[in-house]
Amino acid sequence: MLKKLPFLLSLVLVLALGVTGVAAGGHGASIYVIHGIPGDNGFPVDVSVDGACALPNFTFGTRAGPLNLPAGTYSIAVHAPADGMCGGDAAIGPVDLTFADGDNKTIIAHLTATGAPTANVFDNDFSPTGRGQARLIAHHTAAAPAVDVVVARDYFGGGPRIGVPGFANGDQIATELRPGGWQVTLELGGAPVYGPTMLTLKPFTAYSVYAVGVFPGSFQYLVYENGGLKGSR
Residue 112: beta bridge partners? Predict the structure, then answer.
């Protein structure tokens, strides 16, 4: 259900930043960019970096990356569509973001709890999972109140059950789980308000899940797989 951004667009971003690679001796930063604000026709926006148009016609649900960038500070803005790439007013930013060597982060344009456009930066834990495990990394980036998150092997009966109370806009949680089917339910006052939603998890894979949209009308999950996390753990 997710659109994959062509490699060319990643190359455009690197060129827009005026860099050709990571400086000698540096490892650079791995950066992902997500459009997490739903709207008509994919609500296309333009993203500028240091004043140059980097991601034109960037649509809802799209994730760009990983982009390997030299450590440094970059000025990023999200523009409303207009004639000419990045010709519209900045709806978000510009904001200065600093990345260090070895950083692995996601920048997501999303809504605040009250529905205003904003952007947030999250750390990505794509390190090797435990032996045969999967990792679930959940993010609250929706115009919705704080909720209690329940992740259960069998929502209607016994089985493993993990509860996270007071999950609010801007929060991130991560946990490792056995592979297989898990049901995710959002609750208020002990009563389900969204879900259960089934997620099927594969071993050695991290799942980045973003709650986006306006509750309840356009509320939904964006789910991205990050595989190949085998290591010595």
Answer: none
Helix (H) or strand (E) holding 181: strand 180-188
- In the beta sheet, which residues pair with residue 56? none
Place of tokens 């205003």: 116
Pairing of strands 161-167, 147-152: antiparallel
* CA–CA dist 210, 124 (Å, integer): 13
CA 41 to chain centroid: 20
* Cβ-contact 79, 89 below 8 angstroms: yes
Among residues 216, 231, 27, the alpha carbon closest in space to that of 127 is found at: 231
64 and 9 in contact (C-beta within 8 Å)? yes
Residue owning tokens 């964006």: 222
From the CA atom positions of the chain, what is the Rg in Å? 18
Per-residue pLDDT in tens (0 to 9) along the chain, 233 residues: 333 333 334 434 443 444 434 444 457 999 999 999 999 889 999 998 898 888 888 999 999 999 888 999 999 999 987 766 788 888 888 999 999 999 999 999 999 999 999 999 999 999 999 999 999 999 999 999 999 999 998 756 667 889 999 999 999 999 999 999 999 999 999 999 999 999 999 999 999 999 999 999 999 999 999 988 876 45
The DSSP code sequence of 119-173 is EEEEE---SPPSTT-EEEEEEE-SBS--EEEEEES-TTSSS-EEEEEEE-TT-EE
Compute φ and ψ for 43, nearest 5 degrees: 45, 65
